[in-house]
Structures
1.
Amino acid sequence: MICLGIESTAHTFGAGIVDSEGKVLANVIRSFSTEEGGMIPVKVAEHHIKVVDEAIMTALDDAKVALKDIDLVSFSQGPGMGHCLRIGAMAARSLAVLHGKPLVGVNHCIAHLEIGGAVTQAKDPVLLYASGANTQIIAYDGGRYRIFGETLDMGVGNFLDSFARHVGLGFPGGPKVAALAEKGEKLIPLPYVVKGMDVSFGGILTNIKQKHDSGRFGLEDLCYSVQETVFAMLTEVAERAMAHCGKDELVLGGGVACNNRLKEMARIMCEDRGARCFVPENRLLVDNAAMIAWLGIVEHQAGVSTNVAEASIRPYERTDDVEVTWR
Ligand code: ATP
Ligand code: FE2
């Protein structure tokens, strides 16, 4: 069985094709970016509309299949930005109806987790999901993926992007902050905000903007310090979730997990407690449709299907809203 997945929750429009063994046959990623300023939802949606056809055709070409060979269509139903989600949902519904294929709408956050199971040896991991809009520590327990800890305000990626935008680095800011951080040497004390199992970035953002604007600190040192601080916060709550759940596997997901320093901290933490750390390749960490296609297959095989009439978007769907019937 092969599935065509479509992703459009935020800045990325993706078309991915995966088979039932978890083999990624195509993973086309078309991302909106700017040199200066952030992302405006209407502009991002315009970007997605422009790339829809090309992304899907390229995915079919890459996988060397035709639409008639596709057995299943899946798409990100939520959570995400309404403007963007609508484009992917429309494309998926149209393909399913026109070509008579079954349709499965999936949860984007759970897709980040499940793809880890397909491409690594993780069996029952804790997921540290660190992306733009989301920052959650997730693990399976009693029929659902539960959120053991999360951000109380913005996602860690949006936090890095906001800081980068403030200092004139453009979007996405995470990779730019990462490059400058490598040249930083001095650890500047910043607020460290872990509340129970949750984290918060708003106060750190205000503080680091003030430090930057004071002109008393070098940008490279600020980038270095911000990474050391917020990644330590994430590693701390991930470790506590592993201890609490008695799980000895960690999977990283989300675009911020592309960061080498975060990967390093996660690996050291796992080594220290005799656990295993799994990091899928970067193209499967960022928003992508291969993970959407894979979750489509997993759910379809468990008997899940989405009626076209009920395939509306779910911008606010939470990870633990979804009943997990496929485990
Ligand atoms: P979601 O919809 O799941 O919240 P998202 O739409 O923000 O995710 P992702 O592709 O998962 O998309 O993540 C994008 C984020 O990852 C951006 O905030 C970007 O700055 C950040 N990012 C990408 N590469 C790096 C890196 N090397 N270091 C730090 N952050 C990074
Ligand atoms: Fe994502």
2.
Amino acid sequence: MPDDAVTMDKIVSLCKRRGIIFPASEIYGGIANTYDYGHYGVLLKRNVVDAWWQAMIGDRDDIVALDSAIIQHPRTWEASGHLAGFTDPLVDCRTCGQRFRADHLDAEHDVRCPRKPSVLPGQGPDCNLTEAREFNLMFETTIGPVQEAGSTVYLRPETAQGIFLDFKTVLGFARRKPPFGIAQVGKSFRNEITPGNFIFRTLEFEQMEMEYFVPPDDAHRWYLHWLEARMDWYERLGIRGDHLRLRAHEQDELSHYSSATSDVEYLYPIGWQELEGIANRGNFDLTQHAQYSGEKLEYFDQQSGERYVPHVIEPAAGVGRATLALLCDAYDEDQIGGEARTVLKLHPRMAPVKVAVLPLVRKDGQPELAHEVRNLLRRRMQTEYDEGGSIGRRYRRQDEIGTPWCVTIDHQSLEDRTVTVRDRDTLTQDRVAIDELPDVLAGKLEAAWISPKVAA
Ligand code: ATP
């Protein structure tokens, strides 16, 4: 179990208090496993997604972007195997009426019966579980006003299949040859009926998926490459190395099409859990869609005269789970001048707001100069202006959302055009000339960073 101050309850309460992430449809009493992202949550999530795109298409030349439809032809899910096999085994308790995953009844998953005293499902004297039944996780809907045979469609349970459907089209215009990848970010939907642990498991969630098409003989080598690249990506977001691990699936855990899969796991307050899955999917998907659609989905190498169905390596990550890992990894509590402080020690590049500009007092020309400074910075980085409340309270507000720097305008600023820059983690305050401020802060943002919780 984690050794720091963070618990899931504290994360949930901070997120709600600061409008980062909160339950959806709250005025109607909420809806299970569904959350909304407020201003700072949107900014944080956008930083995660931007960092992913940077790693996929900014830092490399062998991957192209795609944004495929959420509702695809229903045959897609026959071919992919989701219609027949994308199921969870569920049991119902006849006593409490709660539904549980049959494979999550053990202490490791720690899903508790809602009755008091709360026990693991099936362990209490009154528990009365049904046999396990398979339950398909895909949301169904219909096209057109009348629900008739043939009009049933599904909300995609993963973004990956849209990539396989477009493989031939993309190959035609992308001027790439294997090894090359197609990346996409978008919403997926799963009818998850078991308790979700905040945004860890939700009904709708954003995925960041990339299908990397390779010559069959190179598949294992590229699988190893992506294991390393993806672990490295999480560390570059500032997540502590000792809270990340790669876990290879056992033979009996592997999907029928996969010859190897590993999960990147994070040590959440609920224990080690999957952040991302990296799978060697072989040629299963392209072969299936070729068979069901009648299209040839293969690569013809004009130089060698070789024709083959590429194999696929898939790193599939969740935006929500990465966001939750960042929040958990950054959460800290300390004392300043005898007062308790809650702080998110986020990597500055991940922080929703990079710099807050604060006039010490709301008079003497300080707000005007503060606005001038804010306007100087806003094109370079996400900036916030705040003049409400004591300076201590304003620092505390920024600490809670993880703002790495607070720029304070005081009486000296009006005399010599310098400001103080307060550091969230070290609490040092340095005087910097306003003219130099944008470059000084941009330099700090680019600098190497390591979580202060590592040394703690
Ligand atoms: P789990 O075993 O936790 O249900 P999974 O193995 O079914 O996850 P994948 O199908 O591999 O998940 O999906 C890839 C990624 O999408 C996961 O690693 C996770 O980050 C994210 N993800 C999957 N399901 C959900 C969900 N219900 N809510 C939030 N994120 C999800």
